[in-house]
Amino acid sequence: MDLNLVIAVLALAIAAVVAVALVAALARRPAMAAPPPASDVTPALDVLRASIDDLRAANASAMSELRTEMQRTLGATEQQLVTQTGATQRTLTDLSRQLGALGEQSQRVGELAKDIGSLHDLLRAPKARGGFGELMLERLLQDCLPASAYEIQYTYRDGSRVDAIVRYGSRIVPIDSKFPSESYTQIALSRDDAERRTRRRAFLQQVRRHVDAVAKYISPQDQTIDYGFMYLPSESIYYELTLGDASPDEPDILAYCADRHVIPASPNTLLAYLQVVALGVRGLAMQERTRDLQQGIAQVRREFERFVELHDQLGRHLDNATKKFDETERALARASGAIEGLAQVPLAAGSEQGVLPLGLPDDET
């Protein structure tokens, strides 16, 4: 509070007190019906002087009490002002420090805005854009897969190189990350629907060419699966490519990707696709094991058929041996009979030529 204003208010209060006291003193005097005579003026003046003296003494006492109260009030007010001034000073100091920090943050935000603009200009170049997409793909694979399950910049036998591959057993899954996003940016800058449709058709034509480039990474001789992944670095691009406002005269980009065995994948869908691929690779491995088992069973069957053939051949040999044995047994029986017959024929004593009779038939004698 201003000190001059307090003093003025106190002066007005004192003047009001004096006026009230004077009016009260005059009111206590009896009213006179007529002017007093000249001899009565002196006592009246004495009474007036006494009243004025009393009023002066009362005013002096009131002024003293008022001065004491004013000094006490002023002391308390001064103390409050000192306390408030200290608090205000601290508040202003904190506010100044916060404003300084805010100024530094504003400066950093300005520098960050410049960096963002520089990054935007940097990503306009196709090579740097591909490097940024490859960095995002590598970070995604690094966060979700072990280091042995993927490889960045994988080289094929013919020298060509793909951005990343994911291993599933003996098979690999190729992933390309160099998506042409500048044509999609042009769609977002369209001023009307006609310009948007024109730029969208140009975007789809560029995507078709990129799908053809990704399809070259599908190489069965390099143990790849029958599909390749086209990594899209933004969910908005994935939406525009798969669920955008397509007109009847636009080519079906999803059918084109399916014909080329290329699967478009966003950051949120890539891992889900890879899990599906893992299940498919497991099915292929089971199919290969089943094929190996079938080949083993076929080999056992051929061996069994050969054994049956050898068994039949042995049986035929045994039949032939049995027949030969029977024939030799009959021949032995005949020879044994002939020997027995010879043993029973008597020798002729007077034979002139000394020839033993052989018992030939009559037609041979």
Task: Please give the number of β-strands.
Answer: 5
Structural class of the helix and strand makeup? alpha/beta
Q: How does the overall form come out from the CA principal axes? A: elongated
Number of helices: 8
Low-confidence stretches: 30-35, 349-365
> How much is the radius of gyration in Å?
63 Å
What is the end-to-end distance? Answer: 182 Å
Amount of beta strand:
5-15%
Q: Strand order, biggest sheet? A: 1-2-3-4-5
Overall number of domains: 2
Helix content: 55-70%
Largest sheet: 5 strands, mixed
Averaged pLDDT, please?
A: 76
Order of helices and strands: HHHEEEHHEHHEH
Task: Please render the helix and strand layout as text.
Blueprint: H1 3-28, H2 41-124, H3 126-144, E1 150-155, E2 161-168, E3 171-176, H4 182-188, H5 193-215, E4 228-231, H6 235-242, H7 253-259, E5 262-265, H8 267-344
Parallel strand pairs: 3-4, 4-5
Antiparallel strand pairs: 1-2, 2-3
